[in-house]
Amino acid sequence: xxxxxxxxxxxxxxxxxxxxxxxxxxxxxxxxxxxxxxxxxxxxxxxxxxxxxxxxxxxxxxxxxxxxxxxxxxxxxxxxxxxxxxxxxxxxxxxxxxxxxxx
Length: 103
What we know:
By secondary structure, the chain is an all-beta fold. It has strands spanning 5-6, 14-20, 23-32, 37-44, 49-55, 73-79, 96-102. The strands form 2 sheets. A 4-stranded antiparallel sheet has the order 2-3-4-5, with no helix packed on it. The chain has a 3-stranded antiparallel sheet with strand order 1-7-6, with no helix packed on it.
């Protein structure tokens, strides 16, 4: 993951704009208590949503099945010390991280 960069996260629901592969996106994260996991939404710079409720899990490219959208990279969740552990409510942005890997 040499070109990967970590998204700036905190263990709370949040909305922020970030540039991924030279395109500005709005990222929204929230805790889904029913499934006990974080989920994210992506919107364009005009805040028009195009991905909603994608669970943050480990072991896959979270954007892989959405390659047709042309986002220009992948999104990977990793937890320090245990790459298979899903980020928890308490550790998101601390030891539970989300990385963007450009194509």
